Amino acid sequence: MGISLNKLTSKLAAHLVKLCISFVWSTSRIKATIDPESQKLMLADEPLIISLWHNRILLLPKFMQRFKSFASVVSSHRDGDLLSEFLMAYNHTAIRGSSRRGGFNAIKQVMQHLKDNKPVVITPDGPLGPRYSINGNITNIAIKSHSAIIPVCYSVKNAKVLKTWDNFIIPYPFNDIAIDVMKPIYLNNKLSEQEQKSHLQSTMMEQIKKLDQQISCSNRHSISDSAAIIVYNIYHLISSLLHPFLKGHLLRRVDNGKENLISIKQKMGIYELKRPEGKLVWVHAASVGESKSALPLINQLSKHHGTHVLLTTSTLTAAQFLNQEIKENSLIIHQFLVLDTPQNTKSFFKHWRPNLGIFIDSELWPNIIYKSSCPMMLINARISPDSFHYWRKISWMFRFVVNGFKTISPTTAQDIGFLKELGIDKQIHNLGNLKDAAPPLAYDIERYTKSKKALTGFNFVCASTHEGEEVEILKEFMDSKINIIIVPRHPNRSPSIAKMAEKIGYEVSIHSAHPIPFFKSKDKPHLYIVDKIGDLGLWYRIADIAFVGGSLVDIGGHNIIEATQLGKPVIVGPFTYNFSDSLNHLKKADAILQAKNATGIKKAVLSLSKNKNRLKELGKNAEKASAEDNRIISSHIDLILKVMNNDPLI
C-alpha cells in the first residue's frame, strides 16, 4: 500500500525540523532546573500531565528524551500532520483531536494513556488560543484521572517569533536556553473549575515571567562562545566515534594492572547494582588524594543527613582504598566513572539518576558536565600556575566547560584569583580546603608497635613521592645512617624504585614481602618501601620527620595536613602551589620547613636529627596549627543542601 504525497512531505519535513532542533540544542548553552519531586514522577510509572504553552512546544520532544516517552494532544487540522510526524520522530505519540474536532475521542485516548500510567502533554491554550489562557479540559482530566500536573516551560535568548495567534517561538542556534520543570500541582474538587484554571494559569504565567527575566539577564553570546560550542561539538562527535574502540583500549590496560573486568564494565556504563531509593548525591573523586578529601564530606552527608551517596573514582588504587574505608557504611556506593563519551554518559545518567553531581578537585569531563541531568558543583577546585597559563590562551573554552557547574568552591585564594582572571562568572564560594578538615589518618596499632621496634634509629618518611624525587633523596642520604621509608604516590612503581635503590647501594625491604621491616645488613643504608594503599597513618606516626612528595618535581605537592596534624615536622620542596594557603598558614606558625632541592632537605633533616628540642618544637607547632576544622565541612554541607534543594545561593 503506497504512502500519500502529503504524508511523505510531512514525514520528510518532520525529520528536517528534528535535525534543525538537534543543531540548535547542540550549539546552545542549556540550563535546566528540574524539581526533584517532578523528576521522580517523570521517571516513574504514574499518571502525569505535562502542561506547557502552545508557543513553546518545539523543544519539548528533545528535552523529554531523558525521561519517558509521552503522548501529546495534536489538533486534527492539516498542520497537525506535521506535528504528529515530528513527535513520532522522537518516539513520542500523537493523539489527534481538539475541543473543535475529534475532542471526545481525544479525551478518551488521553484518559486511557493516564490509566496506563503514561505521561500526557497538554497545551492548555491550544489549538487556537487565546494565548496563555487555560481554555481546555486539562483541569477536569487531571482530577478525574488523579494525575499530577507538572508545568514545563523554556525561554530562549534569540528566536524568530512568528506572527501567529500564539507568537510561536523558533529558537536560533548558538543560543542561551533556560528550561524549568516546576513542582507538581495536585488539583481537587474543593475549588471550582474556574478557580482551578485560574490557579494553573497564574502558576504557569509566573513560571514564564521568571524564565524570561532569567534569560534576559544572561550574557549575550560572543564569537568566542560560539567557537567554544563548535569545539565542544567536535569533541562530542570524536568521542562518540571512538566509543566502539574504547573497550579494547581498556582491556590492554589490564596487563599493566591499571584496569580489571569490573572497572572496564563500569567505565563503559554497564552496572550490576541498582539505584537506591530516595535522593542520591553523586561525588566524583578521581584518585586516592581526592577520595581522602571527599570522605569526611561524604560521611557527614550519609550519616547525619541520611543521603545515599554514589562515589565514583577513575583508578584501581582509589577503589582499593575506598573499599576499606566505606565498607561499614551501606549508604555509600562506589563505582568507576564512565569514560567521557555520549553513549557512556547517557547510560550513566539513565541508570543512576543523581539529584546532584559534585566534582572534587580539577578533573573536567565536558560530555559528563554538559549532558548531566542534575545540577553540578565543583568543590575543592584548584588550578596550577601551568594550567592557568595554558587556559588563559583559550579562556573562552575554559569558561564554556566550567560554566557547566552551578557553583564552585576553590581551594585557595590563588585559585579564586585564577578563576576570576579566566572570566568565570559563576558564584564562587570561599569555603576552605577539604583536606584541612579531614580527621587524623587511621592506623593498625599492632603493626605500628612491631614496625617501630624493627626500625631503630632516626626515621625519615618520604610520602606520596613521584618519579625523579626518590633517586635525588636516596643519593643524598646514602651515607647518613638514617632509615628511609618511601611511600610512593603510585605503589605499582615500587619494583622500579627498589631496583634503582639497590644499584645505588641500599638494602631494600618491601612491605608486600615483609609487612614488618626486615634488614640483614648492618653496613648498608636501609630503605623500606611501602607498596600499599591507605597505610600513611601508620608511617607518619613512625616518622621523626616527613617529606611530602610532589614538591621536588613540578607536581605542586600533596596533602601536608595529614602529617602535621599528627604532630610531625614536615619538609617540602619548592613546588607547593597545590596547597599554598595551608603552607603559608603553617609557616606563620613555625610548623613546617621548605627546601629548594634534595641537598637542602638532607641538610635540614640531619640538623633536626641532632637537635631533639627543635624537632619537638616543630611537631608541637604543627599539631596546634593543623587542628581539624569542622567549619569547613559544615559550610560545604550547607552549600550542597542548598543546591540540591534549589534554594537561593546567598
Structural topology:
Blueprint: H1 5-26, E1 29-34, H2 36-43, E2 48-51, H3 60-63, E3 71-74, H4 79-89, E4 93-96, H5 103-115, E5 120-122, H6 138-145, E6 148-156, E7 159-161, E8 169-171, E9 176-181, H7 193-217, H8 223-254, H9 261-267, E10 280-284, H10 288-305, E11 308-313, H11 316-325, E12 332-336, H12 342-352, E13 356-360, H13 366-370, E14 376-381, H14 385-393, H15 395-402, E15 407-410, H16 413-421, E16 427-428, H17 445-454, E17 459-465, H18 469-476, E18 483-488, H19 494-504, E19 507-510, E20 526-529, H20 536-542, E21 545-548, H21 561-564, E22 570-572, H22 580-588, E23 593-594, H23 598-609, H24 612-625, H25 630-644
Parallel strand pairs: 1-9, 2-5, 2-6, 3-4, 3-5, 10-11, 10-13, 11-12, 13-14, 14-15, 15-16, 17-18, 17-21, 18-20, 19-20, 21-22, 22-23
Antiparallel strand pairs: 6-9, 7-8
Brief summary:
The chain has 650 residues and is an alpha/beta fold. The chain is built from 25 helices and 23 strands.
How would you describe this protein?
Helices cover 45% and strands 16% of the residues. β3 (71-74), α4 and β4 (93-96) form a beta-alpha-beta unit. It folds into three domains: 5-221, no CATH class; 225-438 and 634-644, 3-Deoxy-D-manno-octulosonic-acid transferase, N-terminal domain (Rossmann fold), CATH 3.40.50.11720; 445-627, Rossmann fold (3-Layer(aba) Sandwich), CATH 3.40.50. The strands form four sheets. A seven-stranded mixed sheet has the order 1-9-6-2-5-3-4, sandwiched between helices. A seven-stranded parallel sheet has the order 12-11-10-13-14-15-16. It is an alpha/beta fold and 650 residues long. The model has no long low-confidence stretch (mean pLDDT 88). The protein is built from 25 helices and 23 strands. The chain is elongated.
